[in-house]
Design goal:
This protein is α/β, with parallel strands linked by helices. It has 11 helices and 13 strands. The structure holds NADP nicotinamide-adenine-dinucleotide phosphate and ligand F7E.
């Protein structure tokens, strides 16, 4: 019998790649999307999977919508990817972010505990939880303390703890994937990688003449979403529930990201880039660099993309889509 997977946040960057990966591995894939006033926009990243997956309306904040689906589907694996995932936006809408991410996850855990205890559950935890903490050797890993620097990071610490609590108290197979930044052509265009690539391509095509950014000095460990969804699936098929860091172990500043992209496009970035308070954060997470030795050793995970091959793929994608309102993924 085929395994059944249920994905919250299936229409997001990771959800869409995860759905593809699970289909390739012979799963039946189910997912929920929230109601959106422009239906066509909602499923953009999933259009090519029509007829292969089952999507229904549902919302983490509507526990009855979760109960109805989980009782009906009885999934083997549940991936909780749904979240208000933008850190800068979480300072503008902190109450919504925390309600949505934290109480949303609680609703899902309660549903699984009460109605489907054999469903394994993956929680999309984040390197944003580490905040100000870096180990002495310059890495963050499973043992590193959490000191989040945003409402988003705080909401994810709550979910991380909830996952461990339900694992211990109710014996659920509940795992935390502590994923560092991961990008792709499907990354929302208000995250820094997509924003830089898309705007630089538009500058090259004379459709824009400036790129306005926030902090250029913060460092991020950027991997590819396609590699990271494979890590999620490996964790769910491990012999025991556990928590794993997923990262590349390389870090670059936002300035270095810009240098790579503008050089690739043969543009002088000093002519086009400026900074604005608008894109700064009340508190910045300055440095991320993950040590993913544990998942490499225990589960054999290995990324296929390099930073360069990922950004090159994004440049090629935005080269074809920089002037379109509706994007084909
Ligand atoms: P994303 O593209 O923003 O996708 C998140 C999805 O969740 C969206 O489709 C969103 O739907 C949906 N969603 C939000 N609130 C919901 C709710 N109450 N009920 C149902 N669906 C809801 O994010 P991503 O990059 O794929 O990331 C996936 C998960 O991993 C997120 O939880 C994120 O916080 C976490 N994470 C991401 C990274 C990263 O670098 N990408 C790193 C670590 C952890 P709408 O479109 O309707 O808003
Ligand atoms: O910012 C700086 C910004 O918004 C990266 C989410 O997936 O990863 C992501 O969160 C860096 C920050 O991602 C702009 O200040 C400069 O230092 O692309 P980002 P993020 O905040 O790191 C974590 C792991 C998650 O879990 C989150 O869900 O870039 N930056 N100028 C800018 N960032 C943005 N967005 N826009 C700018 O103009």
């Amino acid at each position: 019998m085929k395994k059944k997977a249920f994905i919250t946040g299936i229409a997001g960057q990771d959800g869409s790649y995860l759905a593809e990966h699970l289909l390739e591995n012979d799963y039946e894939v189910y997912g929920i999307i929230r109601r959106n006033s422009i239906t066509e926009h909602q499923r953009l990243r999933l259009n090519h999977l029509d007829n292969k997956i089952t999507i229904e309306y549902g919302d983490l904040l509507d526990i009855s919508s979760l109960e109805n689906k989980i009782i009906k589907i009885k999934p083997d694996e549940i991936y909780n990817l749904a979240a208000q995932s933008h850190v800068r936006v979480s300072f503008d809408i902190p109450h919504f972010t925390v309600m949505n991410n934290a109480i949303g996850a609680l609703n899902l855990f309660e549903t699984v505990k009460n109605h489907s205890k054999n469903s394994k559950i993956y929680q999309a935890s984040s390197s944003e939880m580490f905040g100000r903490c870096v180990d002495e050797d310059g890495f963050q890993r499973e043992q590193t303390r959490f000191e989040p620097t945003s409402p988003y990071g705080c909401s994810k610490v709550f979910c991380f703890n909830l996952t461990k609590h339900y694992r211990i108290a109710y014996n659920l197979f509940a795992v935390n994937g502590i994923l560092f930044n991961h990008e792709s052509p499907r990354r929302g265009s208000n995250f820094v990688t997509s924003k830089v690539v898309k705007t630089a391509v538009r500058i090259k095509n004379k459709l824009d003449d400036k790129l306005i950014l926030g902090n250029l000095d913060s460092s991020r460990d950027w991997g590819h979403s396609k590699d990271y969804v494979k890590a999620m699936n490996l964790m769910m098929n491990h012999s025991k529930p556990d928590d794993f860091v997923v990262a590349t172990g390389e870090t670059r500043t936002v300035k270095e990201l810009c240098e790579y992209v503008f050089k690739k496009l043969d543009l002088n970035m000093d002519k086009y880039i400026s900074q604005s308070e608008k894109f700064m954060r009340p508190e910045e997470l300055r440095f991320l660099c993950g040590d993913s030795s544990k998942i490499k050793k225990e589960l054999g995970w290995k990324p296929e993309y390099s930073f360069e091959s990922m950004i090159d793929e994004m440049i090629e994608f935005w080269g074809k889509n920089h002037d379109k309102n509706v994007i084909e993924y």
